Amino acid sequence: MQAWQVHQNGEPVAAMRLQEVDRPPPGDGQVLLKVRAANINFPDALMCRGHYQVRPPLPFTPGVEICGETEDGRRVIATPALPYGGFAEYAVADAAALLPAPDALDDAEAAALHIGYQTGWFGLHRRARLEAGETLLVHAAAGGVGSAAVQLGKAAGATVIGVVGGADKAAVARGLGCDVVIDRRSEDVIGAVKEATGGRGADVIYDPVGGEAYTQSTKVVAFEGRIVVVGFASGSIPSAALNHALVKNYGILGLHWGLYNTKNPKLVLHCHEQLTGLAARGAIKPLVSERVPLSGAAAAVQRVADGVTTGRIAVMPALQNGAAA
Fold first, then answer.
1. At a CB cut-off of 8 Å and minimum separation 6, what does 58 contact?
2. What share of the chain is helix, strand, coil (3-state, %, to 5)?
3. Given a cut of 60, is residue 325 above it in pLDDT?
4. Both ends of the chain: CA-CA distance in Å?
5. C-alpha distance from residue 94 to each of 35, 39, 325 (Å)
6. Please, are residues 97 and 261 in contact by the beta-carbon 8 Å criterion?
7. What is the mean pLDDT of residues 282-287?
8. Structure pTM?
9. Average model confidence (pLDDT) for the chain?
10. pLDDT of 320 strictly over 80
């Protein structure tokens, strides 16, 4: 089969090589899956660089979430067991962690429903306890993680403010349903949030960016507000000023979604059931901006790494030169 492999860490377009390899052997409790779609996540780029908290042994195949097909024909969502990731024709995954792919979504959309939406659901509902009528601020609202949070926030009855970088991304955020869109490249984020909220600030802030975005968050979080820290796409990890959190009376909540798979896997299943229901009634629908053939995976991962994409890019092994094989 064909699979992308990383033999030496570096930028994705340089580190990833498409090779002919044997199908991965399933271990105890694992199953072999035919990859129907593999969604690209920022951690894929970080793993290529060797900067992610999970460092699979070299060589490895990136790709941390897929829509796959079991040997008996079931369509499932899975997190591949590294080093046999999803940017390949076949991957392996733990049988106990397979989730049914929602009928309401196609393969690319189903692949994109998993990590980003699970993170959003746990961040907004489990950690921040977002309530209807509250104001939710989402940084990088047009990205894969941010777009999921926007949709989940709207589905929960929140007023959603989306912060983006650039006019094209602002248009995407509006299309996702943001009530207010702020272009950080041409607007003062702090002033615009205060104006939009009548000076009160945002009740919940969802931050996958870190760096300057986190600093802005601390200046616009409302009384009894909650800042949910889910990642550092900016590459800058901020240091929290706890005295500031004390005097302004807000909470800083960390979220590592992957821990729930071992600490409380029943909650992951419950979350998937909630997401499936939302998808069935059209309340959420993953934004898949591109569907690329397997041969285009490295270039697509590089675009995600460079921060120039919107929504999700799905790698489709059955596509050849953009047409179904």
1. 6, 7, 8, 9
2. 35, 30, 35
3. no
4. 15
5. 14, 18, 28
6. yes
7. 97
8. 0.93
9. 95
10. no
